[in-house]
Amino acid sequence: MSGLRPILESSRRLVVKLGSSLVAPPSGRGASLPGLARDLAALDAEATLVSSGAVALGRGRTGRSASDLPARQALSAIGQPRLMRLWQDAFAETGREVAQILLTPDVTEDRARYLNARAALRAVHAMGAIPIVNENDAVATEELRSGDNDRLAAQTAGLIGADTLVLLSDVDGLYDRDPSEAGAAHVPFVSRESLGGYDTARMVSRSGVGTGGMGSKVRAAALASGWGVRVVIASGRSDSPIGDLLRGDARCTVFEARDERAPARRRWLSSRAHMAGRVHVDAGAAAALRRGASLLAVGVRDATGGFEAGDLLRIEGPDGPVAFGLASCSEETVRSGEAKIVVHRDDLVLEG
Asked: Are residues 228 and 312 in the same domain?
């Protein structure tokens, strides 16, 4: 896969994600953290690591199971310092400092928090350190599975305006079926057109260590590549995983990125996970939205969810989802007939 060399070498900002099965494997071989540290230190790009493993390390330290949310939160709190120690030791010989960045799922829901997180990451890079990003599971109010780190990696790539996202896994990319099955074929390239054909709900984690799996990686790739970020899924079970990709010594799956880079505000909008409401529009309004117009109240046929101005809305036409965006007014205002613009075009992202 020699074509990866120009992709990686031309990246100004690179995000690399490792799952729990690589950082804290229950058995067998995980990732060489010092080897990956050397790889990243040798690149000219600003590198950001998204690292799982806190819960798994906490479980290994205590011997306790993550039986419910409070237990998982406690294991995360116990394991997170050990996770950072692993990365400090890994980068020690490179002379690079590491910085802990813990994010909560709502960092993408609130614009001010989103911008503050971006400023913090930029400041860490300005000091020559490597940010180690993880979800702040110890204080998360939702089940940990709702915020898998593959999506967090995609959100981080959007947050910092990364050129490339590398998702390191315990397999060397995407296959047309479970790779343990006879005849499974490796998929080296996924086009924008073919991406929607993958049934990610049936792709589950086989390691039993983390909360992700190949399905979450494909969903993360769809999100990031839709912003124009180049996405690679590759094996992390190597002494030099990035070096192997540069030399063409490793197989991987490359996801085609959208040609046009999404503006920062639209990356923020489409990284948000929680839809507060839904509006149904007529065919004329759906067509106007696809031409780049704002959503006018005259084209709305129904509104649900009890949304307020500033909430995120799903917009559906007669043939299905059309777009999503920030409400310019409340549902009550729409229903009263007082609204003119329901979603402004600057606050709108088309589906697909």
From this structure: no
Predicted confidence at residue 145, as pLDDT, reads 44
Contacting residues for 108 by C-beta, under 8 A, at least 6 apart: 114, 155, 159, 268, 271, 272, 273
Query: Of 248, 266, 284, which residue sits at a domain end?
Result: 266
Tell me the residue range of the domain where 188 lies: 4-266
Q: What is d(CA 322, CA 77) in angstroms, rounded to the nearest whole number?
A: 41
Q: Do residues 101 and 83 make contact, with C-beta atoms less than 8 angstroms apart?
A: no
User: Residue 109, SS3?
Assistant: coil
User: How many structural domains is the chain composed of?
Assistant: 2
Q: In what order do the strands lie in the sheet with 300-304?
A: 300-304, 277-281, 312-317, 320-326, 348-350
* 262 and 286 both lie in a single domain: no
- Asked whether residue 253 falls in the same domain as residue 316, the answer is no
- Give the pLDDT of residue 200: 65
Intervals of the chain under pLDDT 70: 1-3, 28, 141-147, 199-212, 273, 352
pLDDT at 144 (0 to 100):
41
What pLDDT is stored for residue 143 in this prediction?
46
Instruction: Enter the pTM of the model.
Output: 0.85
Query: Which residues participate in the annotated binding site for ATP?
Result: 17, 169-170, 211-217
CA distances from 238 to 28, 242, 249, 251 (A): 13, 9, 11, 12
- CATH code, domain carrying 103: 3.40.1160.10
| CA separation for the pair 284, 280 (Å, rounded) | 12
Residue stretches of the annotated binding site: 17, 52, 137, 149, 169-170, 211-217
Claim to verify: residue 331 and residue 248 sit in the same structural domain? no
- How far is residue 119's CA from residue 128's CA, in Å, rounded to a whole number? 15
**Cβ pair 211, 144 in contact under 8 A:** yes
Task: Kindly state whether residues 233 and 150 are assigned to the same domain.
Answer: yes
Binding-site residue numbers for substrate are 52, 137, 149
Q: What is the pLDDT of residue 202?
A: 63
Q: For residue 287, give the CATH number of its domain.
A: 2.30.130.10
